C-alpha cells in the first residue's frame, strides 16, 4: 500500500513538473514601426531571377500593443528570418521560410512569405499557434548616395546606397547585404506562438 501511494505521488509530481516546463504560448496584438533590418545573402543577389537564400536580422524600432493581454508602448522589436526561393535584385517571388521575433522578452516563432517589387517589401508571418503579422517596408536605396556633395540639400532622396551603384552591383558581382526598414508591422488580428 505504501509503495502504491509513493508511485501515485511521484507520478503526480512528474505530471505537474512536466506541465510547468512546457513552452508558453505568447500572443501579440498591436503594431510596430521603423524597424531596421539587415539582410545577408550567402550567394550574392543579382539581376537574374533564381533560387536564393538569405537571413535577415531585425533590431530596433518601436512596438505598442499587448503581449499576453498586458499592454505596453514603445518597446523595441528583435527578430530573425531565414528564407529561400525565387529572388533577384528587381523582384522577390515565391520566397518563404522560418521566422521568429521577440518583444518584451517574449518570443513568437512562425513561418512567413516574402514578396518584393523593386525596393518595396511585404512579408506575412504566420504564428505557430495562429494569427498573422504583416510587415511592409522598403530597401534603403536612395537616388543620391550619402557621399554626394548634394546630399545635405536633398535629404529625402539620400540613403545608405543609391540606385546607380546598386544597379551596377546587381549587374556585376551582386549584393551580399541589403539594409531594409520595416515601415509598419501590424497583427491580423493577433499572432501567437511559442
Biggest sheet layout: 8 strands, antiparallel, barrel
Number of strands: 12
- Strand order of the biggest β-sheet: 1-2-3-4-5-6-7-12
Q: Could you tell me the mean pLDDT?
A: 87
Overall number of structural domains? 1
Class based on secondary structure composition and strand pairing: mainly beta
Question: What's the shape?
Answer: globular
Tally of helical segments? 2
Unreliable stretches: 1-21
The whole-angstrom Rg is 22 Å
Tags for this entry?
194 residues, mainly beta, eight-stranded antiparallel β-barrel, 65% strand, globular, disordered N terminus
How does this structure look, described?
- The two termini are 42 Å apart.
- A hairpin with a 2-residue loop joins strand 6 and strand 7.
- This protein is mostly beta strands.
- Helices cover 15% and strands 65% of the residues.
- The model is unreliable at 1-21 (pLDDT under 50).
- It is globular, with a radius of gyration of 22 Å.
- It has helices at 2-21, 163-171; strands spanning 26-45, 50-67, 70-87, 91-103, 106-117, 120-127, 130-139, 141-142, 144-145, 158-159, 161-162, 175-193.
- The protein has one domain (23-193).
- It contains two helices and twelve strands.
- An eight-stranded antiparallel β-barrel has the order 1-2-3-4-5-6-7-12. Strands 8-11 form a two-stranded parallel sheet.
